[in-house]
Amino acid sequence: MSSPPVSPANHDTDATGVLMRDVMGQLLQKLRYEPTAKRVRATLGGQTVVDTTHAMLVWEPRRVVPGYAVPYQDIRAEISPRTPPPPENGPVGFMLPDLSTIPVFDPRIPFDVRTTGGEPVGIRVAGTEAVASGFRARDPGLDDYVILAFADFDSWFEEDDEIISHPHDPYGRIDIRGTSRHVQLMLDGHILADTTRARMLFETTLPARYYLPVEDVVAPLEPSSTRSMCSYKGYATWYSALVGDKRVDDIAWQYEHPLSDAAEVQDYVAFLDERLDLVIDGEQQERALTPSS
Fold first, then answer.
1. What positions does the domain DUF427 occupy (predicted)?
2. How far is CA 125 from CA 68, 151, 164, in A?
3. Which of 20, 151, 199, 293 is deepest in the core (most CB within 10 A)?
4. Could you tell me the CA-to-CA distances from 185 to 31, 191, 195, 240, 282 in Å, in that order?
């Protein structure tokens, strides 16, 4: 049986292709939200103060990761108007030139830095000193919702699993692939690492990262007091490196007990190659511009 004829293309329609990151960059300046089917809970002061099956993922303008907004009636705590702290002087945000021509806000930017109109509110657990910040955006799509400061709460759960740092972006992901490329990391002529056994971690909108076997790290590493967390990878331990006669602080990190998405880089070491010379198959790479540059 022959296939049905295909209608000719409508040549009056603009069929020009678009670069997806350009589309994402344009949307960065808008208030964006998306319903989630997950049951979302949060604790504060040892009590469950949020329990909802009607949460919204919300990206405020210039924010690159989402937070949660929940219906007013699903918050089991006192909600009252709040006066936010005065804004800091000077520019705010970080450049991600592959994504945006204006500075973007990552999770390190305080919750009360925003470009959305609305009302700041406080969430207080009755009979305790436990408080958290919230915001009611002036937008019809978020009527009767409160955007919550993720970091102010003790813990967050999606269904029965705890999440950290921020909710996952349904339009972002990480992929890990083994590579036999010859990867070298150098500084001032000194080799810090040299391997053909790296694992490349690809994360939406960010430069690829090279995770290296510990055995292929040449520079002595010393643990630092710095810790960080990633919603996808887990908690990271940071290291300083001894390079020649100087110490380079917080230049590398490792996930000793990663979350499931990052299990393939467990105990591997990654470097802030935006501060180093990254050489791939003998060709030096241009240093990426990231919030860590």
1. 183-273
2. 19, 16, 21
3. 199
4. 39, 6, 9, 14, 11
Q: Using an 8 Å Cβ cutoff, are 136 and 145 in contact?
A: yes
Which domains are assigned to the chain?
20-163 (2.170.150.40), 174-284 (2.170.150.40)
Please state, in angstroms and rounded to a whole number, the distance separating the CA atoms of residues 182 and 119: 53
**CB atoms < 10 A from the CB of 31, how many?**
21
Tell me: the pLDDT tens digits for 246-261?
Answer: 999 999 999 999 999 9
Give the tokens for residue 93.
Answer: 């945000």
C-beta of residue 94 within 8 angstroms of C-beta of residue 104: yes
Within 45-197, strands assigned E span: 47-52, 56-59, 67-71, 78-81, 118-124, 131-137, 145-148, 155-158, 161-163, 174-178, 183-187, 190-195
Residue closest to 275 by CA, chosen among 251, 245, 247, 249: 251
**Measured distance CA(265)–CA(263) in Å, rounded:** 6
Helices (H), the chain: 20-27
Phi, psi torsion values for 267, nearest 5 degrees = 70, 0
Name, in order, each residue with C-beta under 8 angstroms of 164's C-beta and a sequence gap of 6 or more.
156, 229, 230, 231, 234, 235
Determine which helix (DSSP H) or strand (DSSP E) holds 279, and give its type and residue range.
strand 277-280
Q: What is the pTM of this model?
A: 0.90
Q: What percent of the chain has pLDDT over 90?
A: 83
Torsion of CA 91, 114, 69, 204, to 10 degrees: -40
Nearest to 240 by CA among 216, 254, 223: 223
